């Protein structure tokens, strides 16, 4: 009877500890940007691993509820493992530890292989670590109360205290601890719900990127010079800079999402995501740049985007005479003003993008749809979590950053950056690669020059050109003499403009000046 009581209490302890562990780790994942919920990540891996007939059967049987059923299955499996861990753990605490180590390992593997996640490995693994600590910690605590006798331990005839469990544990102590763990589980669950962006993440995980109607031309050979330490030609989604005013990434599920096009148009349009997918989808490589990028800064990245050309949508709506701007608005009420003629220009190929580097837009980069407009700084061209396009006049509105002292119009300034060597690097005497990137969307880079210690400008070798809306790598082979040196770079675009040495701040329309690094040779 007492043994059974202990087993039941142990099982309950396991269940509570498991619930607390999962709930708190879900909350931690929800609180971190770019980290997928552990339950969702494990469920997604299960989907990947399942043979196709099983998947088809699941979809046919459960329909749109298949995700919920799947996650229910994951929760049920965790519950069974936790109950067994608790029941067995009453006598063998190591089993309790083993069970949570196992769960944490599965969560870690799922987190590290998750495609929707954009955070680094440390952040991704954190929920699994929390799962282990909370699960094992609370179970050990609960099982400990079961070991605490209500009466003094029975002495064996030999006079040694029995290592067997006491005939009865102190119920009140156990129940109090159990209640505390249950409260932790509920709090974790509520926090996960409050913080989680799971609706958008779930929709994104279900999405396959459509084949573009017009694929990007193949990447020319030689766009990437492969110099050590040089920024890769294409920026991965994970490494892509992120700039926005959102404290938490807006959760914009596909269900109910629409893009409204209105204002000075003949025909108002309200498009669903599916409507976008059914239009002409064009793929293009475009380098984005933030106006906040300081000389030598990191707020610039190059990706392949798939989207509906903005000019197609504007044509469909029928732009009326007198309009000169499009005011775009995001789900989080950020506003942007973009010149109409840029959005209508086929050479620019501005997009309402739905994919980035072959994946649905990451949540941080505007899921489900965003603007990408070559040649203009992001704050006047790249609205993420896009929901509204109003054809209008610059005279009739002010966008978010315009009311805060930035220019209403802001073409990207021709710029260049030295990636290698890093500032204050110590180099060996002799041949050293000085390399970096230069950009001048939509003019294109014509020339990059480097000078050492204020000497004569030397022309750098340019990587192969992709298109005028993307950055270009460059390298200068430098014969380094011992001593301290200053390296400077400047670019010339295809309009013939050479970067000015004059340093201006980022406000109101972008920084200027030459990037330089100081190094020591010898
Ligand atoms: N909704 C929304 N969209 C936005 C912003 C923002 O704050 N909110 N910032 C803009 C700015 S300033 C830039 S530089 C780009 C950056 O895009 P990224 O974060 O994908 O690199 O997004 C633009 N789109
Ligand atoms: Mo920006």
UniProtKB/TrEMBL annotation:
Entry GO MF terms: heme binding; molybdopterin cofactor binding; sulfite oxidase activity
Signal peptide extent: 1-29
Membrane-spanning intervals of the chain: 68-88, 95-113, 125-146
One Gene Ontology biological process: sulfur compound metabolic process
Oxidoreductase molybdopterin-binding domain: residues covered: 248-401
Residue numbers spanned by region Disordered: 492-522
Stored InterPro entries: Ig_E-set, OxRdtase_Mopterin-bd_dom, OxRdtase_Mopterin-bd_sf, TAT_signal
UniProt-listed Gene3D superfamilies: 2.60.40.650, Oxidoreductase, molybdopterin-binding domain (3.90.420.10)
Pfam families, sorted: Oxidored_molyb
PROSITE patterns associated with the record: TAT (PS51318)
Record protein name field: Molybdopterin-binding oxidoreductase
């Amino acid at each position: 009877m007492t043994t059974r009581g202990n087993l039941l209490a142990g099982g309950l302890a396991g269940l509570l500890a498991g619930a607390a562990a999962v709930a708190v780790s879900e909350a931690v994942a929800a609180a971190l940007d770019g980290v997928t919920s552990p339950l969702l990540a494990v469920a997604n891996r299960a989907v990947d691993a399942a043979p196709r007939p099983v998947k088809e059967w699941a979809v046919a049987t459960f329909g749109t509820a298949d995700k919920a059923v799947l996650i229910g299955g994951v929760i049920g499996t965790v519950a069974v493992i936790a109950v067994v861990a608790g029941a067995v753990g009453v006598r063998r605490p190591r089993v309790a530890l083993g069970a949570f180590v196992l769960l944490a390992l599965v969560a870690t593997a799922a987190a590290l292989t998750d495609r929707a996640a954009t955070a680094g490995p440390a952040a991704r693994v954190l929920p699994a670590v929390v799962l282990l600590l909370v699960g094992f910690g609370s179970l050990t605590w609960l099982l400990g109360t079961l070991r605490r006798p209500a009466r003094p331990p029975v002495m064996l005839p030999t006079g040694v205290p029995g290592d067997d469990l006491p005939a009865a544990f102190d119920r009140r102590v156990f129940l109090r601890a159990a209640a505390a763990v249950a409260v932790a589980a509920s709090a974790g669950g509520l926090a996960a719900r409050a913080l989680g962006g799971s609706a958008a993440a779930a929709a994104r995980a279900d999405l396959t990127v459509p084949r573009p109607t017009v694929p990007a031309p193949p990447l020319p050979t030689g766009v990437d010079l492969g110099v050590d330490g040089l920024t890769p030609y294409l920026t991965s989604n994970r490494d892509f800079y992120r700039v926005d005013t959102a404290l938490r990434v807006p959760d914009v599920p596909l269900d109910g999402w629409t893009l409204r096009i209105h204002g000075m148009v003949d025909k108002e349009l309200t498009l669903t995501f599916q409507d976008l997918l059914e239009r002409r989808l064009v793929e293009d490589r475009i380098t984005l740049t933030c106006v906040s990028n300081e000389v030598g800064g990191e707020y610039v990245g190059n990706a392949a985007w798939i989207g509906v050309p903005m000019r197609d949508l504007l044509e469909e709506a029928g732009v009326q005479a007198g309009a000169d701007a499009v005011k775009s608005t995001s789900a989080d009420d950020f506003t942007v003003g973009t010149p109409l003629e840029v959005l209508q220009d086929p050479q620019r190929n501005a997009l309402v993008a739905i994919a980035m580097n072959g994946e649905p837009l990451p949540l941080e980069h505007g899921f489900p749809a965003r603007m990408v407009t070559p040649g203009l700084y992001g704050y006047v061209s790249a609205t993420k979590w896009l929901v509204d396009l109003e054809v209008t006049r610059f005279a009739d509105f002010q966008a978010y950053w315009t009311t805060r002292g930035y220019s209403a119009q802001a073409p990207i300034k021709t710029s260049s950056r030295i990636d290698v060597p890093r500032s204050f690097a110590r180099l060996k005497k002799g041949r050293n690669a000085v390399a970096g990137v230069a950009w001048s969307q939509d003019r294109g880079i014509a020339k990059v020059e480097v000078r050492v210690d204020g000497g004569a400008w030397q022309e750098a070798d340019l990587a192969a050109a992709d298109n005028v809306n993307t950055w270009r790598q460059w390298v200068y082979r430098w014969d380094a003499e011992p001593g301290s040196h200053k390296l400077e770079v400047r670019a010339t675009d295809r309009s013939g403009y050479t970067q000015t040495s004059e340093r201006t701040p980022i406000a109101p329309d972008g920084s200027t000046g030459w990037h330089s690094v100081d190094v020591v040779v010898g």
